[in-house]
Amino acid sequence: MSRRIEKFLVLFVLCSFALALSGCYYFSAKREIANADKLYSDLKGQGGEKLVPYQYCSAEKLLEDARIEFDSNDFKYAEGFAKRSISASEAGLAEIQKKR
Hints:
With about 100 residues, this protein is mainly α.
């Protein structure tokens, strides 16, 4: 094989790999944002705004940041913010359960 074909194949494989990884982050971030949105809604429905304001505000802001990053095509960061929002919502829901 000529050098030119070898360079093309290497470049093609690297680009394919990069596209595959970005696609994985896309679907993973989308799934995490959906989970974060559900937990945030649950927290809001159980009166989280008044009962656990710190966790409520944290979950809300982190979910907003996740959506902003997702819209900016920064899927890795969107996934991270969504996971942190999930964590804040879960902490808030656990705290509400303790109070009841």
